[in-house]
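Exercise 3.2. Students should predict the tertiary structure of the chain below and write it as structure tokens, then compare their answer with the key that follows.

Predict this chain's 3D structure.
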Amino acid sequence: MISKSQKALIGITTYGRQASLPFSLPSEYIDAVRAAGGIPILLPPGEIEPARLLDSLDGLIISGGGDIDPVCYNGFAHPTIYAVDSERDAFELELAKFALERHLPILGICRGLQILMVACGGTLIPHIPDVYGTSALHRVEPEPGRRLPTEHFVKIDVQSYLADCLQNSHVSVVSWHHQAVDKVPSGWRVVGHALDDGVIEAVEHEHHPWAIGVQWHPELSTVVDPSNQRLFQALVRAAHTKS
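Answer key:
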């Protein structure tokens, strides 16, 4: 256990390889962890022993990004699926499994929530409008190939640990996704839905001491609703108390 005088080390997964470009991650993730009192440690995909990375970490964030390969959850191809990265999929799925086994505090954000679900045997909806209708928009596409975030409201179960973390059961969020959870795996429960269309927006583990997934981007949502920053604060607090 880390002492109260030390800052918690929070690992954050990065985006995958993009041709000759370097591994990267939006700075908002880093800023949110630092503002919560933690030290961000970036974790690029490709490590062959992902479990060893967790030995020196106090908490883990699985970040957003492109879509998970449908093969990982026995899904099917869809024309809207993009930026599939098998190296990143394999790395993050392994990290998620080991973090859950070790009871390491873990937060899944957008794609990260989906990684948690798939790692535990869950499945995904390939394209939200196909199930919820074309009015169910969780990102904006003003033209082909151009994707922008959008704002909406999420209703949180008042009896959930997530509501306790946020100190709120009705939050304004920024989201940037076209897929969502379909089958929720055993051991997890749904604790948040989009207010307008009912899309699953948050899950938490029923037995793990601190494992939460949110479909929105809390690191981008602090301006529209400051309670989003409390999620990072709660993760850092949990990292300080892990055994």
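Discussion points: The chain has a mean pLDDT of 93. The first strand starts at residue 9 and ends at 13.
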